[in-house]
Amino acid sequence: MILRLSRMKELMTATTELAPAPRDPEGEVAPPRKRKQLTKMVGMTVALGAVLAVLLAIFILPSLKSGPTDLPVGLVGSSQEADRFEEALTASAPGAYQVQEFTDQATLIEAVRGREVVGGFVVGPNGVHSVVASAGGGAIAQSVSATAQGIGTAMGVPVTTDDVVALPTTDPSGIGIGGLAFPLVFGGIVPVVAFRTAFARSNTWKLVGLLTFSVVGGLVVATVLRFAFGSIDSAFLPVAAAMALGIAAMAFPLTGLQEAFGGKGFTIGAMSMMFLGNPFAGIATTAAWLPTGLGAFGQILPPGATGTLVRSVAYFGGTGGLTAGLTLGAWVVVGLVVHAVGTRRTRKAAPAVAAAEVAAA
C-alpha cells in the first residue's frame, strides 16, 4: 500500500511538470512568453520606424536640397561688360552657374536649343537680356530669368527675357510631362504580375504580353498628353516610342528578377524602382535641378532616363536624349538575359523536383 501511494505521488509530480505554462484568467500566457512577444513587437516597431524615416528622407531630400548648382549658362557681351556681369552673378548666386562665353546672341540661342547650356545672358548697353528654355525645365528657366532680373535691377538697367523653347500654351507649366512618374511605375510593375498570372505556364506569351503592353501603354500616354492635356504639340510617335521603351525597361528586368529569384527578386526590384527611381528621376524638374550626384544616379534608373528621353523628343527633336535611350535599351537587354538565365535554371531544376515529389509520394 505504501509503495502504491509513493508511485501515485511520482506520477502526479511528473504530470505537473509536463503541464503547459499557466495562463491568467484572460487566457494570456505566462510572463516569460509575454516578454518574448513584447521584445519582438518592440523590435519590429523600431525597424519599421527606421525604414519609414529612410523613405521620408529619400522622398523629401530631392525637393529640399534641389536648386541651381553648377548649371551651365552662356554669356554674351563685351569683355568689360561680361566681366562685370559675371562678378555680379557670382556674388548674387555663388555656385549656382557655370558660365560659358559666346560670341553673339544667335550662337547662344542655338546652344540653348541644342541643350549645351540651360540658358544664358546677353549683356549690352541696352540692359540685360536672358535666354531661357522653359520646355527644358520650368524651375531652371525661372531661376535664370529671376537671376537676370535681380542683377539688372542692381545695375540699374532694363531686363528682358526670351523663351526660345517654350512649353505649349495649353500646358504652360509642363504638368503633363512632369506627371509621368506614376503611370510609368504602374506600367512597369503591374503588368508583370498580371501577365505572369495569366500565362503561368508560357514564358513566350508572358514576354509577348509585356512587349505588347509596352507599345500600347506608350501610345495611350502619348494620346493623353497630346489630345487631353495638350502637353505636346507634335512628336506624337516619338513620345509614344520613348514611353514604350521606358515601360519595357522597367517591366523586363522585373520579370527577369521574378523568373530568376522568385517573389523576393521581384519585390526588391519593384521597391527599388518605386523608392529610388521615382524620387531621383527629376521628371518634373529635370535631373540638373536635383542635388549633385542624386540627379546623375536617377538617370541610371529607368524612370529618370525615361523622363529625359520623353522631354528630349517632345520639345528638342531628340537632342540630349541619346544617353537616356541607350540606358533604357540596356535595361531591356539585361532584363531579357536575366529572364533567360532564370528560365534555364528552372528547367534544369524541374526533373530533380519531380523526382523528389515521386519519392515523397
Write the layout of secondary structure elements.
Blueprint: H1 2-18, H2 31-65, E1 71-76, H3 79-92, E2 97-101, H4 105-113, E3 119-124, E4 127-132, H5 138-155, E5 159-163, H6 175-178, H7 181-198, H8 203-228, H9 236-277, H10 294-300, H11 302-315, H12 322-360
Parallel strand pairs: 1-2, 1-3, 4-5
Antiparallel strand pairs: 3-4
Helix pairs in contact: 7-8, 7-9, 8-9, 9-11, 9-12, 10-11, 11-12
Query: What is the H/E string?
Result: HHEHEHEEHEHHHHHHH
- For the secondary structure, the number of strands is 5
Q: Can you tell me the number of structural domains? A: 2
Number of helices: 12
Shape: globular
- Give the low-pLDDT segments: 15-19
The major sheet is characterized as:
5 strands, mixed
Please give the order of strands in the largest beta sheet.
2-1-3-4-5
Based on CA atoms alone, the radius of gyration comes out at 31 Å
- Strand pairing plus helix content: what structural class? alpha/beta
Average residue-wise pLDDT: 88
- Helical residue percent? 55-70%
List keywords for this structure.
single chain; 361 residues; alpha/beta; D-Maltodextrin-Binding Protein, domain 2; 2 domains; five-stranded mixed beta sheet; 12 helices; 5 strands; 8% strand; globular
Outline the structure in words.
With 361 residues, the chain is an alpha/beta fold. The chain has 2 domains: 71-163, 3-Layer(aba) Sandwich (D-Maltodextrin-Binding Protein, domain 2); 175-355, no CATH class. It is 67% helix and 8% strand. It is built from 12 helices and 5 strands. Helix 7 (181-198) packs across helix 9 (236-277), helix 9 (236-277) packs across helix 12 and helix 10 crosses helix 11 (302-315). The longest helix is centred in the C-terminal third of the chain and has 42 residues, at 236-277.
